[in-house]
Design a protein that fits this description.
- The complex is a heterodimer of chains A (114) and B (113).
- With 114 residues, chain A is mostly beta strands.
- Chain A is built from no helices and ten strands.
- A six-stranded mixed beta sheet of chain A has the order 2-10-9-4-5-6, with no helix packed on it. A four-stranded antiparallel beta sheet of chain A has the order 1-3-8-7, with no helix packed on it.
- Chain A is globular and about 40 Å long.
- In chain B, the strands form two sheets. In chain B, strands 2, 4, 5, 6, 9, 10 and 11 form a seven-stranded mixed beta sheet that branches. Chain B has a four-stranded antiparallel beta sheet with strand order 1-3-8-7, with no helix packed on it.
- Chain B is mainly beta and 113 residues long.
- The chains are: A mainly beta (114), B mainly beta (113).
- At the A-B interface, strand 5 of A face strand 5, strand 9 and strand 10 of B.
Chain lengths: 114, 113
Amino acid sequence: EVQLVESGGGLVQPGGSLRLSCAASGFTFSSYEMNWVRQAPGKGLEWVSYISSGGTTIYYADSVKGRFTISRDNAKNSLYLQMNSLRAEDTAVYYCASGDYGGWGQGALVTVSS
Amino acid sequence: DVVMTQSPLSLPVTLGQPASISCRSSQSLVHSDGNTYLSWFQQRPGQSPRRLIYKVSNRDSGVPDRFSGSGSGTDFTLKISRVEAEDVGVYYCMQGTHWPPETFGQGTKVEIK
């Protein structure tokens, strides 16, 4: 069974940085593409970033391009999202999800506020 | 980007009665490989999204058979044959044919009358 557990969320000031982690278990992580998806309070789902199984292909939503960096460590079964230059509009619950969206984590809340 | 439009956005239903949610895409979701990458997700209150249906009509493991997906091209439907209390939540369609980005509908909130 796919298990994904996010960590690293919290309160950060505008312009600050935060790094989210997603620990994977129950499946062969190194064989799976992965995504980050976010959900602003009371809003819908927004795809944020994608990384291929080997980490060689990466995509970002226009809203985070140049500020966020997705990465993975297959030896550690972990996915990451480095978020820099954070803005109030980045406030959301951030989910890691498997490439086919069959598995989702419980989410990590990121609040950008002064 | 492909725009996904759901209707209705709010759906009050009576327990035991059927429910239907429509999802329309701004362009055909038929991929060059012949598949149509349209999925449906359920998000119960306070929970993470859960995929119910993939490639239009394929139910995920553990999803009750009262959920069904249909459609083609640009028009898709999620049907619940008999709504149960545990079905309360927000339902999203998502296209994975024309990516990046994969895009979601606005969500349809299902509540019990």
